[in-house]
Design brief:
Largest sheet: 4 strands, antiparallel
Oligomer: single chain
CATH class: Alpha Beta
Strand order of the largest sheet: 2-3-1-4
Number of domains: 1
Number of helices: 2
Shape: globular
CATH topology: Alpha-Beta Plaits
Length: 73
């Protein structure tokens, strides 16, 4: 299992969408939310994600398709 720390920046269009829920439901990963903040314009979350490398790569492709910015720490 791989573990990666990421900061995710969500565009305002995703403000009312359950993105982190979808991450757990559709991907075999374990997210640990360290810190998060959402406003009317955007949101961000600092997470530790744990899972198999291929599953993390698949998750990152999904997030990119939703216009989520991914900053790996």
């Amino acid at each position: 299992m791989a573990k990666v720390e990421v900061e995710l920046i969500f565009p305002k269009e995703l403000k009312n969408h359950p993105v982190i829920y979808q991450m757990v439901k559709d991907f075999d990963i374990i997210p640990t939310i360290i810190e998060a903040s959402f406003s009317t314009d955007m949101g961000w979350a600092y997470l530790i994600l744990e899972g198999k490398e291929k599953e993390l790569e698949r998750l990152f492709e999904y997030l990119k398709s939703k216009r989520v910015t991914i900053n790996k720490k």
